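B., you asked whether I could sanity-check this one before it goes into the benchmark set. Here's the sequence:
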Amino acid sequence: MTYEMRMKDIREESLAEGEAKGRVEGKAEEKLATAKRLLNIGLSVQDVAKGTSLSVEQVENLKAEQK
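And here's what the prediction gave me:
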């Protein structure tokens, strides 16, 4: 394999890893935003945790931050 081909492979792998990481981080931010909205409309911490797949502790922390 030539140097140029290997460098192209490395760039493509790095790009794919970056895109995957961005999707994961975006989903996490989306879950947090959804949890905040659900808390604001009065859902319980347990219901918000169930609905967003966040832990009860994470939702309690969000609730404490909103006060």
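One thing to flag: The radius of gyration is 19 Å. Otherwise nothing jumped out at me.
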